[in-house]
Amino acid sequence: MSDSEKPKFIIPETGYMAQDPERPQPAYVAPAIEQGPPSDATVLFDGSDLSHWRMADGSPAKWKVEDGYFEVIPKSGSIFTKAEFGSLQLHLEFASPVELQGQGQGRGNSGIFFYENRYEVQILDNYENPTYADGIVGAIYSQHPPLVNAIRKPGEWNTYDIVWQAPVFDGKRLVAPAIITVLLNGVVVQAHTKVLGGTRIKKGELPHYEAHPAEGCIQLQDHNNPVRFRNIWLRRLS
Questions:
Q1: Which H, E and C letters describe the chain, residue by residue?
Q2: What residue ranges define each of the domains in the chain, with the CATH number in brackets?
Q3: Confidence at residue 17, expressed as pLDDT on a 0 to 100 scale
Q4: pLDDT digits (tens, 9 = 90+) for 15-34
């Protein structure tokens, strides 16, 4: 198509003409080499220490670090990022214990919370271990079951890649709900899913939103199981 044949109208949603040569170009981000983070990532765990994490009271994170991963110390408490984030792309790898203990929600249980204890993506060993559908690995806990169960065998490393679009508030009024896309081991398990509200649902209480700041910390849950984590990084999304 010649330049004279290209459409000249402005698309209202973008503010630009289709195929506009003056439209700003996206920034270049160098992709990862093998399993490393991309060039614009914030690395939250590189295998060495938990300096980017804290306990709920602000003290240093107490979980065990060894051999390039860290592990939940049961009953020590959840850990939280020191920094706060809004919309983001998150990469995280986890492994459930090789030794099988417990069943259902009692086996390899942890979770990724956005905005400190508000919105949870479930971590659970669901390899030949059934439980309620909206509580298995890949679920938006107590709301949306995953499209499929793509967990690996106990002790093997699993990969989460999550795109989190933060909710938007105008004062106390919800303007736009949180939207989440989740890949587990390269398989889409949540596809542009609308989060219905807080995922720590009390008996008889429907999920709902309560206004909070635009940015918040990320929490990894201590659910009394020695789940392991490694290679954690994220990218802030505008």
A1: CCHHHCCCCEECCCCEECCCCCCCCCCCCCCCCCCCCCCCCEEEECCCCCCCEEECCCCECCCEEECCEEECCCCCCCEEECCCECCEEEEEEEECCCCCCCCHHHCCCEEEEECCCCEEEEECCCCCCCCCHHHCCCCECCCECCCCCCCCCCCCCEEEEEEEECCEEECCEEEECCEEEEEECCEEEEEEEECCCCCCCCCCCCCCCCCCCCCECEEECCCCCCCEEEEEEEEECC
A2: 30-236 (2.60.120.560)
A3: 73
A4: 877 667 787 877 776 766 67
Burial class, 57, CB count within 10 angstroms (exposed 0-12 / middle 13-18 / buried 19+)? exposed
**Of 9-13, 94-98, 105-109, 183-187, the least confident:** 9-13
